[in-house]
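Forum > Structural Biology > Help requests

Title: Can anyone predict the 3D structure of 6-phosphogluconolactonase?

Hi all, first post here. I have the sequence for 6-phosphogluconolactonase but no way to get a structure on my laptop. I'd be grateful if someone could post the structure tokens.
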Amino acid sequence: MGTLTATSPQLCRWHDFSTTAELEQSAAHAILQAAEAAVRLRGAFHIVLAGGTTPRRIYAALRKADADWNAWHVYFSDERCLPAYHLERNSRMAMETWLNQVPIPPGQIHPIQAELGAGIAASAYAKTLKNIPLFDLVLLGLGEDGHTASLFPGHDLGSATDSPAVLAVGNAPKFPPQRVSLGAHRLSAARKVFFIVSGASKKKAIQNWLHGIPIPAAAIRPQDGIDVYLETTLFETDH
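Reply #1:
Sure, ran it for you. Structure tokens for 6-phosphogluconolactonase below:
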């Protein structure tokens, strides 16, 4: 594994792994370490989950962990405006892969009710987050176009300090067009942020990120910086 620094003004710690399995194992271990530290220091662990396909195997690994699940509080970075149990809902993937199989109290798992429509769901989720000034850990992925959560190029990223915590996204370039997403400023209100990136299709986005091109992922700027876990082949650029 290597650790390098990008030229972007965003503070990034880049961790590259020779195989996807090594990446996933290291990320799962880092998540559990963050949880243990948060519970020890503050008695609770507030984590925001990424959707999509990349974190699925990490979630599967976490369900086998010996963790203090009663102290976990789970939120979501974004959600698709689809019926509650639709196959492409982020919450369904996380529940089936992991959350339904560990004893986190149900009242401490907070899906986004995107089936109600983007505007209503965004407003309701902002109220859910109101009393959580800092997340302990935010997990995020990276799209081929550099998007993260449902923050897409050319759209409002919610980066300003007075931006809404949760955005109603319309006309997204990926299906479905209506989504709900935490804004960049709210996602940055975290003690730790991990990006989990795999797949050859992400290489151009990584090149742009390393070269300081302002992709949406570069708008996530927590005070302590971010950690990016990715495959070595994605780091084989001309940077």
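Confidence is low (pLDDT under 50) at residues 1-8. The first strand starts at residue 2 and ends at 4.
Shout if anything looks off.
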